Amino acid sequence: MNYAAGLDGGGTKTAVTVVDETGRTVFTLESGGINYNGRDEADIRRSLAEIADAISAACGGPDACRQMVVGAAGVSNPTVPGRLVAALRDAGYRGGVHVVGDHETALFGALEREHGMILIAGTGSICFGRSESGLVHRTGGFGYLIDDEGSGYSIGRDLLAAVVRAHDGRGPTTVLTEMVYDRLRIGSVEEIVRFVYDKGTGKQDIAALAPLLSDGCALGDEAALGIARRTATELVQLVLPVAERLSLEGGELAMAGSVLLRSAQVREAFQAGLRERCPGIRAMAPRRDASAGAALMALRMLAGE
Q1: Pick from 277, 246, 264: which is nearest to 114 by CA?
Q2: Burial of 197 (0-12, 13-18, 19+ CB in 10 A)
Q3: What are phi and psi of 39, to 5 degrees?
């Protein structure tokens, strides 16, 4: 029996799915993130070594998994694909490896086909689409320093900004202050500054604050509701150019990532904004996750050998 593996490598975690020749899922795993734009190389190599060992054990040896597709965040950096492949080889993986952006594997899994659109709002944010004729277009996904609007990182940053603005009197008093203090186990704005600018604080640490938005919105907090509205608007702005460029204004859009799947306030505001701007787009939850999409892509490549 030959096997194919799919990796969905984000900024905070990597999901792994292994399928057999019939497409049946035989193994899943979650490991650390493999985004070279936001994680230490040693951490990435440890994660890939763990993944390679687990796949070998699940498939009955290092040669049984014949093809792997890695959908990874940060592959717009041209050095990343080669570094990922080299790390997998060093970890003992011997099969074929194909590296693509995680938006491509997410689209394949979400719609169980190559064409359509997907909006991903997790630690980062991106919208990707492919027409039936094979044309592609993407918006966003350029990293937290210059982009990632509507993402978990941007929400976390905005939550912190709301706290410091409230402290200064530049913004309304907000329940987010105590929520952020409790989550970070601190008690002052000065400690927020220390946390944000500490060399050990990464974008995933800022993004980890994003779930507090739902709590703030549930209490009717003005600052939280404003962040939810801005986040939804930014996400709509990601979708519209993709739909227009690829003539997919009447197509399906999969909504993926923790921001859209776990924050009802952001999701509902996004859907309302999308209906207003482009009512023909049908927003939906993914049918399968990105690691399953990567595994199915790998299986198709294996069948085409």
Answers
A1: 246
A2: exposed
A3: -135, 155
Phi–psi pair at 66, nearest 5 degrees? -85, -25
CA–CA dist 13, 47 (Å, integer): 9
Residue 64's SS3 state is coil
Residue 279 in tokens: 């009512």
User: What letters, b where the CB count within 10 A reaches 16 and e where it falls short, cover 55-68?
Assistant: bbebbeebebbbbb
Q: What's the pTM?
A: 0.83
CB under 8 Å, gap of 24 or more: what pairs does 167-175 form? 171/223, 172/222, 172/223, 174/216, 174/221, 174/222, 174/223, 174/224, 175/216, 175/219, 175/221, 175/224
pLDDT by residue for the chain (305 residues), tens only, comes to 899 999 998 767 899 999 999 999 999 999 998 888 767 889 999 999 999 999 999 999 989 999 999 998 778 788 899 999 999 999 999 999 999 988 899 999 999 998 999 999 988 899 999 999 999 999 998 888 999 999 999 999 999 999 999 999 999 999 999 999 999 999 999 999 999 999 999 888 999 999 999 999 999 999 999 999 999 999 999 999 999 999 999 999 999 999 999 999 999 999 999 999 999 999 999 999 999 999 999 999 998 75
Helix (H, G, I), strand (E, B) or coil at 41: helix
